[in-house]
Specification:
217 residues, flat
């Protein structure tokens, strides 16, 4: 299964240290995900996931997706209508199983998206480490931020592989789930190098903002 998420053959680097291996980065990502899932279970702090899975229930019963349901969770849903269908495969399980699968889904989706970037193996490993604060923030709050970031990356890499339909699908899906997914549309109108540097700038800016948020909290 690991080979599916790793773009290159790790046997090409027999002398590499364990921390210079993409498999170790993936292991670290999964470990971080599991730690925060267990923390959410232990503290019963998974309100965001309860909001998400309740959107599917409201869709089935034709109730408002944006009303407040204090009997089930605090706050209200702020995601687009299509999100209630995306969360459906997870909402059918008991909450603690659904939460685990949801966070793992976002973890693997972002990791796989990074592997599609036109970078060397070493550069992908570096990004894997740099993106850990983003991953922690997403797993801590059960957010779709990792998944949304993955859709943006895929919208860029797919359009550069002349897979415009699939790139457009990522843009539309990301936009209908969370409005800032429309950022992916920019990559369709830029030269490959300009689009790549804009993607890197976007990722770095988000990491800085998340790091700042952790430092002042």
């Amino acid at each position: 299964m690991l080979n599916y998420f790793l773009a290159n053959n790790q046997s090409l680097y027999p002398s590499r240290k364990y921390y210079q291996d993409n498999r170790f980065v993936l292991f670290l990502w999964v470990l971080i995900t599991l730690i925060f899932v267990i923390d959410s279970w232990a503290t019963h702090r998974y309100n965001n996931y309860l909001i998400f899975e309740n959107t599917f229930r409201n869709l089935l019963h034709e109730h408002s997706l944006y009303a407040v349901y204090p009997a089930y969770h605090d706050d209200a849903n702020h995601y687009g209508p299509i999100f209630s269908m995306l969360i459906a495969p997870f909402a059918i399980f008991h909450n603690w199983i659904g939460l685990l699968l949801w966070n793992l889904f976002n973890c693997f989706l972002l990791f796989k998206a990074i592997q599609t970037l036109p970078l060397t193996e070493d550069q992908k490993i570096i990004i894997g480490y740099i993106a850990i604060p983003c991953l922690i923030e997403s797993m801590l709050n059960q957010q779709f931020n990792a998944g949304a970031g993955a859709l943006m990356i895929l919208s860029y890499t797919l359009v550069n592989k002349n897979k415009g339909i699939w790139s457009a699908l990522c843009i539309v899906l990301g936009t209908f789930i969370k409005l800032y997914g429309i950022v992916g549309l920019v990559f369709s109108f830029l030269p490959k190098k300009a689009g790549f540097y804009l993607m890197v700038d976007y990722v770095v800016d988000n990491i800085i903002l998340i790091a700042h948020a952790f430092s002042v909290s």
